[in-house]
Amino acid sequence: SQPVRIAPSILSADFARLGEEVRAIDSAGADWIHVDVMDGHFVPNITIGPAVVKALRPHTAKPFDVHLMISPVDPYLEAFAEAGADIITVHPEAGPHLHRTIQRIKALGRKAGVSLNPATPAKMLDYVLEEVDLVLVMSVNPGFGGQSFIDSQLRKIEAIRKQIDRIGKPIHLEVDGGIDRDTAPRAIAAGADVLVAGTASFRGGPDAYAANIEALRGG
Ligand code: DX5
Ligand code: ZN
């Protein structure tokens, strides 16, 4: 199996010093930078848009893992691709044509991800799994950092891991929400290979970031 990657969510960073925060979490060992984009419509919170992604792009060479919690989503794909997103992940409920949305992301030269809310079944992937580069299982209801991990999502991760292994393509299986040093090993055991962590990455300030990330790897 693939090595576990850690994708700190900058939602938990200090927004007044976001460039420095991205540099600090990069040098602390982050594999990817997870960017949570919320529109106050698809989810009950508003965060950042393509202008901020673009402003952060020169601060790190690590992949930008952009999680779009916005609806509609299609009109914004190009802006996020041009701003420097490497992976663009969408929710199936964000538009009526998920397959087309995935094709558009790939046509923009970016990796495409699909994210499933806690109540959304793995079955939603049946006709698109072979098309995607990443599946993101939400282990909290999207909208806010600092929520508790929902245990039922482990079964979903296990089921999707089996499907990915059956297909035999290097599709990432990412988990997002309530990941800390206790839930990380459970998500990994269920089959996740990318862990998003906001609170657990950024707690304690820059001096703690390297140890925070190491703890999530099981160190
Ligand atoms: C939730 C976001 C997550 C969130 C994770 O809507 O998609 O990425 O920031 O935060 P923690 O790790 O604090 O649960
Ligand atoms: Zn996220």
UniProtKB/TrEMBL annotation:
- EC number(s)? 5.1.3.1
The cofactor(s) it depends on are: Mn(2+); Zn(2+); a divalent metal cation; Co(2+)
| EC top class, as a word | isomerase
Q: Show the Pfam families listed in the entry.
A: Ribul_P_3_epim (PF00834)
Q: Which InterPro entries match?
A: Aldolase_TIM, Ribul_P_3_epim, Ribul_P_3_epim-like, RibuloseP-bd_barrel
Provide the cofactor note recorded for this chain's UniProt entry: Binds 1 divalent metal cation per subunit.
| Catalytic activity, as annotated | D-ribulose 5-phosphate = D-xylulose 5-phosphate
Report the PROSITE patterns cross-referenced here.
RIBUL_P_3_EPIMER_1 (PS01085), RIBUL_P_3_EPIMER_2 (PS01086)
This protein's pathway reads: Carbohydrate degradation
Which keywords appear in this protein's UniProt record, sorted alphabetically?
Answer: Carbohydrate metabolism, Cobalt, Isomerase, Manganese, Metal-binding, Zinc
Q: Which residues bind substrate?
A: 9, 67, 143-146, 176-178, 198-199
State a single Gene Ontology molecular function. metal ion binding
Q: Which family does it belong to?
A: Belongs to the ribulose-phosphate 3-epimerase family.
- Protein name per UniProt: Ribulose-phosphate 3-epimerase
What gene codes for this chain? rpe
